[in-house]
Amino acid sequence: MEQEKHLILVDGSGFIFRAFHALPPMHSPDGTPVNAVYGFTNMLSRLMREHVGTHLAVIFDAGRQTFRNDIYPAYKAHRPPAPEDLVPQFALIREATKAFNVPSIELPGWEADDLIASYAGVIALEGGRCTIVSSDKDLMQLVTEKVQMLDPIKQRPIGVEEVLTKFGVPPERVVDVQALMGDSTDNVPGVPGIGPKGAAQLVAEFGRLEDVLTAAPGMKPSKRRDALIEHAENARLSLKLVTLARDVALPEPIEALGCRDPSGDMLGGFLAQMGFNSISQRLGLRHVARPTPSPAAPDGDAATRDATAPTASPVKQPDFGPYETVTTTTQLESWVQRIKAEGYVAVDTETDSLQPRRAALIGISLAVRAGEAAYIPLRHQGDLENLVPPQLETAQVLAALTPVFHDDAILKIFQNAKYDLLVFQNAGVTGIAPIDDTMLLSYAQSAGAHGHGMDELSLLHLGHRPITYDEVTGTGRQRIPFAHVSVDKATSYAAEDADVTFRLWLKLKAMLVQNRAVRIYETMERPLIPVLQKMEWAGIKIDVAELQRLSTDFAARMKVMEAEIHQLVGRDFNIGSPKQLGEILFDEMNLSGGKRTKAGAWGTDSSVLQELADQGHALPQHILAWRQLAKLKSTYTDALLEQRDPKTARVHTSYHMAGTTTGRLSSNDPNLQNIPIRTEEGARIRHAFIAEKGRKLVSADYSQIELRLLAAVANIPTLQEAFALGQDIHARTASEVFNVPVEGMDPLTRRRAKAINFGIIYGISAFGLARQLGIPQNEARHYIATYFERYPGIKTYMDRTKEEAREKGFVETPFGRRCYVPGITEKNGARRAYAERQAINAPLQGGAADIIKMAMISVDRQLSDNDFDAQLLLQVHDELVFEVAADKADMLAGFLRETMSSVADIGVKLVVETGIGDNWAEAH
Fold first, then answer.
1. What segment(s) does the record annotate as region Disordered (predicted)?
2. To 5 degrees, how large is the angle CA 107–CA 110–CA 115?
3. What pLDDT was estimated at residue 64?
4. Quick one: CA dihedral 278, 280, 286, 288, positive or negative?
């Protein structure tokens, strides 16, 4: 029998923009931006591998002017020009299409959507079927039983049911809904006041657009009826604009679009030219290369290299599944033997909680090769209709795996290892080593370039979208616990996670050398995992009675504040309502400076209120004070009581190792890094963190570490001298800048110098300094200019760092950590200025983060070698908090001052200040 024709049409123009905005900046060996080219190439290679049709073409827009502009000149007229970095990629994407030996089709005067509509119509008439690779809603009008769509990012098919769910009408009525609602993106006018829901209701009730307009005069009097009558012609015009042409003369006959294998030489040459080494490897194309990372290519694909032409044809990579479900001791033992034979294994856990100390193991996944993975269900419970599925006992499985976990000859690979290690510790298995962590392998090389979650890394490096948690458990009220997911579904989901982790490890580990990230990963990130594991497991004790007193006191003070605020306004209102507050400030009080949000309400965030407060308005000052107290109450005094582990009487914060651009750790559940340092309330909250009876808390804090790094990296002799002599750095700066003696210095003068010192680290502007010090902008501008005159090296450092960020896409800490700054080439001035401030600060904040990590690792190793009876509990930016036996607190403090100050040599003396107390406030 003759094979049914299956035409695959790729909406090239639509995908280009999605890829450009979804992927971080990347450059080819000659410096050309290629992130959209990379995304397109990845998508096309996957499409040809996984969605094989008989015919294939990529459809592009030929230009902006089409027949729709003749009908309505304003159509798409407000769209800005393509981003500067995208322009050179249009031609390269067409070259990529040619390299894959895929027809590329475009036609002046017509949009790509019209060509897609016409080709889809012809193939359907010929009895074939069509898949449109796009998620563009404008193409959904074409969907039939013979014509379907495929979301290229989510790999989700879009058929009649999906269109009905999205629009509320079947595909043939989509244009009527679009004509009524209009489209601000394309300047399609529609009928004012009618949105998607209203348009769908009208079409469902009356039928086609013309039927709706005919029925309008007889509708119940309303604004909607009046709008339909008044804007009927706009609706008819909109229908013409949104309806795709299905009778365009085809530039190439369907017979010419038959699928063809690419030429290995042509495709390999193109991939080598672009520097897309991972795609070449995935397709089995061999070439010789000595890669040097591209400045802006976080995964090393777009890299400068010498490459010869490939000699092999593309080879299909292992599929993601099917995977094995391990339910017998024979299977389990077989996997243990396979792991021992390979010498490495990717491991993942499924649990019933995101808090590892409270999480029970539901299952364990293992992978030893790409495509070879298994899931071991442990506590699946079935549902009302199914019996509990067969599965091994947890203790039996852990007993079999523990020798593997403790075997120094077997590498255990995780994604976010700290979580899984804590889960295993909670299950009674400790000492798992050696380990690798794909999240940190990625983070060490490309902090700030993109996220480091498994799903995002899989899409970026493997071109594969893993099954999501929502897909197996449902969402919202329909979500079920993972223990109730069927074992078949759980296996597909969980084993795939281990498989993806293994494949990511193969790729990311190899990239460490070419991205010069070995030191960061091997000496800072990986050794820190067990340190943080011990900290989180230990937790810190809280004083329940003190927190309850604070919560009661805060509530009482808030009540008094509320009465004062209501008195200022002259009536009661909900202080916590941004909408009501905005109306009072800008509609009733007519204060200047108000801006409305996209939703139409007045903005009342802290920056708006602070600006009004700086102008001397009393109400915003009171609101800010009330909000601060409300936040402390909800975030700390109330939340800490709820987050206290009843088993330990302690709170166990969780440290996120890959969440910042600079390498800093962040904490959550609870967040202990945002407690105000200089306020009375912040000190009172710190009083509630206490040592156990017979023990003390010891705080060790790096003094002015970022200023010391600035003096070092900017090479400022006078600042270096001040630090070497132990002088008051702010007084010394005031003396240098304002030409006044240090002795008898006015405190206000020192405060201004301090504001400049710390402001410079964050790229402060004259406006920001003026606001901080309460002085005119001209005066602030003069202070900054004088500062740079006295310390020209700082200005040189700032200019050099910004230029480095623009050239490479990232800056580096003194220890070699790359901190990517994606917005550094933004055309928008405000966003670009923000990115420039990030670039200036990142080497300093990142350098401080590197030093504190080195200190944590060094101190942790030595604590066990010395009889301190101490445990590191908390890290808060530049401060470490320990709990120690009371009689050894002074000895520990001395050890910390010596060890932490010598952990790194930056050319400027590091100073560590320590404190001892029964609670954190006393120690700090």
1. 289-322
2. 75
3. 73
4. negative
| Range list of H helices, 104-173 | 112-125, 160-167
User: For residue 765, what are its two tokens?
Assistant: 């502007």
| Domain spans, the chain | 6-256, 324-539, 660-710+811-924
**∠ CA(639), CA(640), CA(644), 5° rounding?**
120
Task: Return the CATH superfamily for domain 324-539.
Answer: Ribonuclease H-like superfamily/Ribonuclease H (3.30.420.10)
List Cβ neighbours of 212 (8 Å cut-off, separation of 6 or more).
176, 180, 202, 203, 206, 228
Q: Got the DSSP string for 215-240?
A: HGGGSPSSHHHHHHHHTHHHHHHHHH
Q: Which of 217, 162, 225 is nearest to 191 (CA)?
A: 225
Domain 660-710+811-924: assigned CATH number: 3.30.70.370
**Residue 659 to residue 640: CA distance in whole angstroms:** 23
Q: pLDDT > 70: what percent of the chain?
A: 95
Q: Which residues of 631-642 are buried (b: 16+ CB within 10 A; e: fewer)?
A: ebbeebbbbbee
Task: Decide if 6-256 and 660-710+811-924 have a common fold.
Answer: no
What CATH topology corresponds to 6-256? Rossmann fold (3.40.50)
Position 593 pLDDT exceeds 90? no
What is the rounded distance in angstroms from the CA atom of residue 719 to the CA atom of residue 792?
A: 12
CA distance 485 to 236: 50
pLDDT band at 87 (very low <50, low <70, confident <90, very high): confident
Instruction: Quote the CA–CA distance of 562 and 567 in Å, as a whole number.
Output: 8
| Over residues 64-75, mean pLDDT | 83
List Cβ neighbours of 588 (8 Å cut-off, separation of 6 or more). none
Determine the average pLDDT of the residues in 322-336.
Answer: 96
395-451 pLDDT per residue, tens: 999 999 999 999 988 999 999 999 999 999 999 999 999 999 999 999 999 999 999
- Measured in degrees and rounded to the nearest 5, phi and psi for residue 29 equal -55, -30
pTM exceeds cut of 0.90: no
Rounded mean pLDDT, 75-100: 83
